[in-house]
Amino acid sequence: GAGVSQSPSNKVTEKGKDVELRCDPISGHTALYWYRQSLGQGLEFLIYFQGNSAPDKSGLPSDRFSAERTGGSVSTLTIQRTQQEDSAVYLCASSIHSLNTEAFFGQGTRLTVV
Amino acid sequence: SQQGEEDPQALSIQEGENATMNCSYKTSINNLQWYRQNSGRGLVHLILIRSNEREKHSGRLRVTLDTSKKSSSLLITASRAADTASYFCATDRKGNTGKLIFGQGTTLQVKP
Using CB atoms, which residue from B41, B45, B97 is nearest to A103? Predict the structure, then answer.
């Protein structure tokens, strides 16, 4: 596609429910990132996929968070048993190479846990 | 912990003035990048400066990098109201495979 696509744009869920957030990176991009941004804050790194290497999961805040990337393309971020503190904008980005290249961001998914 | 720290956290200037934002980081890097964010959604890449570069220009943007001080600055000249946004630096730490770590950002308001 022309850019990084994230769905849904907005998601309201009840506390305790599971949610899945989807990211379609730019075709051919080998690197894919997930970040979380709380209101008025910076970007918190969550997870990083690079080609066929094992993902860097060092930013996932708890075992309720997981992500996968199927076929080196689409990625899904899953949050189980959502809590109110999970409310944030979840941003996905991709880049063509891993080193010295810019990242292209999607418009994010705004998650609200009520 | 986050790699980059921007200052100031917020900056308010008049249209036509220059805006300078700073970023400090903690470890050796491959490159440092600046991004802009409008309305709390997707970020747009502005400029990338590699660790062996000291200055880079793009239109009204000027970025400097001082690896000895582990700091970078972003200068926006002749600012416009449309430059109002949040600006973030991101670092690609040396030894990592391209993972970008972002700072907390500077919120810039340009008054018409």
Answer: B45
